[in-house]
Write a structure and sequence with these properties.
Radius of gyration: 23 Å
Mean pLDDT: 84
Number of strands: 24
Distance between the termini: 78 Å
Number of helices: 2
Low-confidence stretches: 1-54
Amino acid sequence: MPKVPRQALLAVCAALLPLLAGCVSSPPSGPSSNGDGAIDDGDAGPGGSAQAVASCPEASETGRPLSKGQVTVRREGGKYRAERTDSGSLQIPRGLPVASRLGSVNGDVQQASGSSQGLVAHLWARGDTEQEARARLDTVRVDFTADAGSVFTLTAMVRTSNPSSNAWSERGGSLAATVPSGTAFCNAKLTTTNGDASSHALAVAALETTTTNGDVEATGAVPSWTGRTTNGDADGDLTASASGWIDLSTTNGEVDVTLRLAASHGIDATASTTNGDATLSFAGASPIGSQSETSAHVRTSDYSAKAVQTELKLRSTNGDVTAGDG
């Protein structure tokens, strides 16, 4: 076969590019998911969709280490506790939306606004001797990514290189990300096991907070929030900046949400508990169906015609459930 000149191949490729571009479909209107997404259609809250999430990919799990701090050791309950504070810079370009993913074990995970920006990880390990505590701490690290593209992706995951099934029994770490005031998040996923998961004074289009033993909390303009805990409270002080859902549940704890609404906003809220009181108090909302001490349902009149619609689903097993417009 005769050899095709390089210039001819380039010309053919150039001609095909517009046709190939037309075969790529636009992103869906609902939340995106890659199998481990921050929000997906299977757990997207009562509404099942989040308009703002489609154009925002979730932050990657891969990353690089933070800058390591000095190790300190102290006695704690008959053992030695080694601690180290690692840190990294963010440098988020002004006006660029952020997708964050923060995860840990045995420690708090939080993001908040502040006058500076950066990520701080407080890592720890315990041992019967100082040497053992230091050796265990050496196995704990934070995989960190902070990259600017179409969105700014921020990822920080506390990891351990210890392969044993009880690797975290004497190890842990907390994460705290600080971003400039006014930073907007298109999505955020905050996860830990024994600790609090919280987002403070931030605009987050779609937020997910998960822990087993600890509180989940959010403040700011958060139209869609899914929060899960087993032993802890779920608390929110939110502004309904767009249509969405607030879906919170706990087994042993209270749920308390303040949602600030404008006249153009509608609310459809349910609250339920097994052992406790369920109370909903929103101006302009009327009871729907039967009400009881442990179950309540209210909805704004002409809810379907409202420009901004928020669906609340709040649940506890052992604790009070309370929500209102402040």
